[in-house]
Amino acid sequence: CDALCDALFTNVHLATMEQGYGELRDGAIAVKDGRIAWLGPRAEAPPAASVHDGGGCWLTPGLVDCHTHIVHAGNRSDEFEARLNGATYEDIAKSGGGIMSTVRATRAASEDELLRQSLARVASLLAEGVTTLEIKSGYGLTLDDEAKMLRVARRVGQVLPVSVSTTFLGAHALPPEFAGRADDYVDEICQRMLPQLAALGLADAVDAFCERIGFSSAQTERIFEAARRHGLPVKLHAEQLSDQGGAELVARFGGLSADHLEHLSLAGIDAMAASGTVAVLLPGAYYFLRDTVQPPVAALRASGVPMAVATDCNPGTSPMTSILLAMNMACTLWRVTPQEALAGATIHAARALGRDADIGSLAVGKRADFALWDIARPADLSYAIGFNPCRAVVNAGVLRKPVVSLPG
Ligand SMILES: O=C(O)CC[C@@H]1NC(=O)NC1=O
Ligand SMILES: [Fe+3]
Is the pTM of this model over 0.90? Predict the structure, then answer.
């Protein structure tokens, strides 16, 4: 720091996540105006107005959950029960349940009620050191209801100490008003919903569900072209249940990420490697659906495609509000390594949001978003199941306890 730093966090071991990982033991990190001003050996730390002794904790970048549907009303435990009695996810969707069940509940909920239900779920993630969260729409499927969801997503970041990236996912399911007229609904998305939501500044990115029970790659391409016309980056639910060529499509648009990827092809991997598109792994949905087809983690690793890990928090396929559990699942179910899982919930997740210049690793000039952990080594974060070792969180240089209080 040229002038006196605002805060110094010392007596900590740093997992910097620079160049993919990076450790600095017995270190310290200084903050000025909400940004990282210095990091290095504890003995060389600069003076600061306030000094916090980290007690030998590990200090990582604040965790980033880069794929959630955390704003929604109601739950779908009835379908969970039905599937355990033999129904399939696609049967339920085809009979009007599934996503449409949550659409009906979300349309019926007021904006304030939607916020109240969502904040409780977000608080669970914040307790585990999450400092940035992506939140999708996709349970409204009309302009007004999609705007309501995205306003609630923005309010989450105003009410709680978390940065929120919003994603418009109007192409999540075909609403009843357009039954049998998918192309007309895609027109509604491209010609009305997306332009107005972009003009209102409610969406930071655009996503679609490219799948047999979702939207075709041709329909997805039309949505991506509309996103491009409005200067919005794209990402995609791709190859979750089948190979629709979604990964190649999102790579062709220089998209931020392709997500799920259980049925990803080698051609899709090559396209993502060439375009720098992040592979977002969502083990919660694989686990909860009792899926058996794994994403090609070894091939993604060999091709150098950056892998992120996220909760996919949603009421139908991944009712999970634990990023640490998602990290453990990625390791245990798919042989992601603990270092890859931590990169997947920090720098690679930040890259999947187009935010890696600002967050996701410990580097001078980045936002001072940190999490402090009472662990022996960083691998402990994806090793433990259901145990939360987070001892403190720092948002833009401001220290807070992990558990936040909710309004009202
Ligand atoms: O079932 C839901 O409510 C959303 C499921 C979620 N959305 C999607 O496109 N794939 C998923 O797993
Ligand atoms: Fe999802």
Answer: yes
